[in-house]
Design a protein that fits this description.
The chain is mainly α. About 75% of the residues lie in helices and about 5% in strands. The chain has eleven helices and two strands, in the order ααααββααααααα. A hairpin with a 2-residue loop joins strand 1 and strand 2.
Length: about 290
């Protein structure tokens, strides 16, 4: 039963990692923006969910309908107001990556500072559906199951959009070759702005779901940015299926090590798995080596 409990917890955590990483792989793969402030938007969404629930009585699933569109609009505005200038002046995609790292690194501290002023450095949490549910003879909190189901629906919906619609085809074309995409009348600037905003919406969804069963603070954004980067690289940059598999692997590895070895070795297990996969598959599990 302990093993089943650990596996369920690992799959739930891995599902959150996968959903969060999908947004980052969209921002980097399509818009070519390496967003180091990514995790701060997750924490901001978690605080919004906390405020909606404790202050207005809006439960987290309903809060998704408010937080995700707001995050989409905020990220679209950030891309248009700040990052468009970097895109315009960058002579190569590599130069854009460097500029975006510097710009979003500064944005990280701006968002984190606002959160610290508003909420301080304390840890926050709230109780929503924190009732035990029996699954396969093991017990897990209902809020974790709700979060996992929501992540599966959102992630599955994104995968279908990216693989079965004209919009998804256009975004994938921009990610592969933006110059060739222009030749078939794809507006690469609009596609990049949309992908960046969509990534912001996904990480906000992850923030709302994570807040249902984990404690969080204003300074935890960097941790989630790091985990998202690890998942994106492990799975293969720009590959949604890679994000899913790598996220589940990371969540299971962290949970199993925490339960059966030592909680203090969780971070060591994360980087051991990361380095092992890169030594075996330098381009990631689903990535393709450049020629």
């Amino acid at each position: 039963m302990i093993l089943i409990d650990a596996l369920l917890s690992g799959v739930t955590l891995g599902g959150m990692y996968a959903l969060i990483a999908m947004g980052l792989t969209l921002q980097y793969g399509v818009a070519r923006i390496m967003n180091l402030s990514y995790g701060e938007f997750l924490i901001a969404a978690a605080f919004l969910a906390f405020w909606f629930f404790t202050g207005l009585g809006v439960n987290p699933p309903a809060g998704l309908l408010l937080v995700v569109p707001l995050a989409f609009l905020v990220n679209w505005a950030i891309y248009r107001a700040l990052l468009t200038w970097l895109v315009a002046r960058a002579k190569t995609r590599a130069a854009l990556e460097v500029d975006s790292i510097l710009a979003t690194f500064g944005l990280l501290f701006v968002i984190q500072g606002i959160a610290l002023v508003a909420f301080g450095g304390a840890y926050y949490s709230y109780s929503y559906l924190a009732v035990p549910v029996s699954v396969l003879g093991s017990t897990i909190a209902a809020n974790r199951l709700v979060a996992l189901a929501a992540a599966a629906v959102i992630g599955g919906g994104l995968y279908l959009v990216m693989t079965r619609t004209r919009l998804g085809t256009a975004l994938r074309a921009v990610a592969v070759d933006p110059v060739a995409a222009q030749l078939v009348a794809i507006d690469i600037r609009a596609a990049a702005a949309f992908a960046f905003a969509l990534g912001g919406g996904l990480v906000a969804a992850g923030g709302v779901l994570v807040s249902m069963f984990l404690t969080f603070s204003a300074t935890m954004g960097v941790l989630f940015t790091m985990k998202a980067l690890i998942v994106v690289i492990m799975g293969g940059v720009g590959n949604l299926m890679g994000c899913l598999v790598a996220g589940l692997l990371l969540g299971l590895a962290e949970t199993l090590v925490s339960r059966f070895v030592d909680p203090g070795l969780t971070l060591a297990a994360t980087f051991t798995l990361f380095l092992g996969i890169l030594l075996w598959r330098p381009a990631g599990l689903f990535g393709k080596a450049a020629r």
